[in-house]
Write the structure tokens for this entry.
Amino acid sequence: MNNRFTVKDFLYMLLLVAALVLLGLILGSLNYQTGQLVSLRKQITAGNQLQLEAISRLHGVVGEAPASTRRAPSQVNIRETLANGDRYVCYPNPPLFPGSPYKLPGYAPGGWLVQNLGTEPHSLIPFVTRSATGNEVQAEVLESLLARNPVTLHWVPWLSRSYLVAKNGLKITFKLRRRARFSNGDPVLASDVVFSFNTMMNPHVNDAQNWPYYSDVKSCVAAGKRTVIFTFKEPYFKALEEVGGFSILPQKVYQFTKASQYNTRSRLLVGSGPYVLYRWAAGQQMVLKKNPRYWGPPPVFNRIVFRFIENPQSALATYLRGEIDSDGVEPSQWRKYTVEPGFTARNHCYKYLTSSAGFLYVGWNLKKPMFQDRRTRVALAMLVNVPALIKTFLYGMAVPITGPFNPLSPQNDRKIKPIPYDPAAAKILLHKAGWRMGPNGVLVQNGREFKFSLLIPSQQPLIQKICVYLQRQWATAGIDCRISPEEFSIMIRRLNHRQFTATLLGWTGSIEMDPYQIFDSRSYLDEGSNAGDFDNAEADKLIAQGRREINTARRMRIWHHLQRVIYGQQPYLFLFTSDSLSFIQQRFRNTKPVGKFGLNPANWYVPLKQQRYP
Amino acid sequence: MTSYIIRRLLLMVPTLVGMTFLLFAVVRFAPGLREAGQANVAQGMMQSRQAQRQEELLVARRLHLVDKNGHPISLPMQYLLWLKSTCEGHLGTSLEYPEPVLKLIAQRLPVTLTINLIAMLVIYLVAVPGGLLAALYRDRLFDRGYGLISLALYSLPAIWVGSSLLGFFANPEFFNWFPAAGLHSTNTQSMDFFQYIGDYFYHITLPIVCSTYAGFAILSKQVRGSILENLGQDYIRTARAKGVKGSTVLVRHVFRNSLLTLITLTGMALPGLLGGSVIVEQIFSIDGMGRLAYTATLARDLPVIQTVALIGSVLTLLSYLAVDICYAIADPRVSYA
């Protein structure tokens, strides 16, 4: 061992580390510049040559936009009920929804829109992707047969030109637009719709979450080149939304022989939408480029860049530095910045409620004796001052609710009055329910103390704060609530196994939700979502009626009745639906929320002189 | 030496098997396994029970919990199946990302490795001379000041430092000097190589500061202690008595003999190089190994958890072997013959 390790060797070692760092940077740079395209191409070449051509066109290598993408002269839209009771809707041209920027003074297409997506999507495989952020990206690239007007909430033809719903609701016929094309130039045909549906329902494709919503679809067949017919086993009020709302994929690009091929093309995203996936730098950003072949209303921005910043503090700092163009903020951040006099002048600040906003609730396990009496549940609600809670913890940026339906939805009955905050009346109700004050300062009924644990997800500071507030409010009436935070997967297991007494959680919202999953007594069985075992014959009957009622007006009356039953029974202590809060850079125009869907970046534009990137 | 290395490598096999067994047992008995693959579902997102069941079955099949017909597989058989596929190089597909685990790691490893190597470089460049000077100026102002500052830095929690760096140095309200998130600017693709490198270093400045500040204390204290120990040795006195120059004594005798401590610390730091810091990556939105392991743990993404842990185990074993070999090279008294 003559070769001793000397100081010189130590310096060499440091030099080696520095060289490794430099090499890593060079490789990183090369990967960043070219790797994503290479990766996309590799995925495609694993398929077939046809797909390779598709991706070449996708990146603008081949061809220009065909003449067929030019707008046809406008014709009259039809929305009528035919003599035989069928409902017919026809839009000869794709509709321009309220808020479209094209005719505004100063409108200029171009520039980039840089947005923060928060969490990076795990994949972009249509139907398989479950993350909300993945769906957000897909919404720019994929399209469906119908689109929803954000103001009227009507379903209007998009890739389809018209649709016909049979009077009994058991058959829906779509006719496709001639000019609708995928980004590879292929026309959208009935065979693509059937392929997309069959892919979604393929038992070997990893999209089990979609299947239950289509369980009533009997068949999906192409009747000619541009006609698709869906038939149903039973009428279902969401049938039009379900079959008109799924993404249509180009068969030639996505065709597979084994489902595993489809399940693993995580970065392949080709559709008929206004943008195409240009690059995905893992962990950094995703870039969408304007689809040069887009058949519909022209997209505004040349590129949409999605960045992945999860930490709200980092996201806001990045926004303030002008590196992202919009940011969804938390109530505390909103409160801090909007009071600054200059800030609101330099930024668009929007506080709004959307139809997709969910609600927060305390769910009772009605199998537990302490919650079986309706009066006890109502008393628990009376002890909570929801408006004060909203004011304290959300700085007033939420809306109290009186049922499971979104406050913006026509499903929600605005006439229902919230249970008032009335501790004195609550104590009387508890007394009537048989609760008496025990020696420990805790209510007692039949020898049992009113003690329960409230199961909540851990790592949710807002929920924990709210729980402490609820705990204090209930304690004033002699109710001992203990907070039990659990990691989310453990919490799911406890809910599925009914190993809980009460829980504080949230449900996502929609324009018109199907209450079957949460409130029908059959949803308690087989670890269903009715974890608290709400079992009410009247509610079951109304849910069954509502689900089969195709007429909207009649259905809304049923839902309103159902809401009164549910709110009266208080299986949940309904808390609130939160507002959405957003900051948008001042250089963007036409940014106001439209209708009930909130912000729509498709309407935004930047005047020519203020556009940052070409 | 060669026979020693071969012996050590062979000894690693039973150690590794034992590690895989422990790893498998810990992961399988962790709560929430059955809900694997569901944890990513947004809080309270509506998902029917039928859909949940289908997903659970798919997950169970992929994890070898049940066979093709849905019948449960015994735990020892599950372990053997996993070990077999691991030995064959099939480390599985992530439950969260529809991609092979190795691909996910390959995407994130360069990010973490580059940042950690730079951080390590900075730590060594500051802490080694710092420790050296502290030893030379023992009990004087520099020694006390350096010791106090490095220990004070060591005691600061990374989450607080990270948030403060973000709040003060990436904020137009204070010092709008650095970007707050990510490793690249939006328009990186239009940059040439040198601009790209500049942009990269601009972005990693705060994460590097956050990764390094706590590392100075341990290393410099070790270097200081080791150098002080060697300064008191007879051979140093002899060298000085022979009239060898002070700087030569310091560099050729004292520092060289203090390198054993550095080798030990470097060896122990090697597995950590690949681990990444969850806190730093989370605060500065860097998609590295730490974040991957963290999200995989939350989502019970077993293939990812097992692979990351397995790679960590192998690297730990290899780094210990490397440390032993370096000892032999650095110190002629050590012999494995």
